[in-house]
Design a protein that fits this description.
This protein is mainly alpha-helical. The protein has a single domain, classed as 434 Repressor (Amino-terminal Domain) (Orthogonal Bundle). The chain is built from four helices and two strands, in the order H-H-H-H-E-E. The chain has a two-stranded antiparallel ribbon with strand order 1-2. Helix 2 packs across helix 3.
Length: 77
């Protein structure tokens, strides 16, 4: 999540506002070691906010230029 926010140049508060999730929830999610955990609807809201801003979330074993999980900007359309 931090990497995606960094790509967009936004802080936790802005992500909370864009996703409709509380700031405390964003902070808790980012403080997690390893896999981000949360309610499915909360995770979906955060992912949708990133996607709406042009960030593509790369799942493990999904096609990408590198290896592993990560984020990248979507290609301009």
């Amino acid at each position: 999540m931090r990497a995606a926010r960094a790509l967009l140049g936004i802080d936790q508060k802005t992500l909370a506002e864009r996703s409709g999730v509380s700031l405390a929830t964003i902070q808790r999610m980012e403080a997690a070691d390893g896999t981000v955990r949360g309610q499915i609807d909360t995770l979906v809201k955060v992912i949708e906010a990133f996607e709406a801003a042009g960030v593509e979330i790369i799942a493990e074993h999904a096609p990408s230029q590198g290896r592993g999980r990560g984020v990248r900007l979507k290609a301009a359309q």
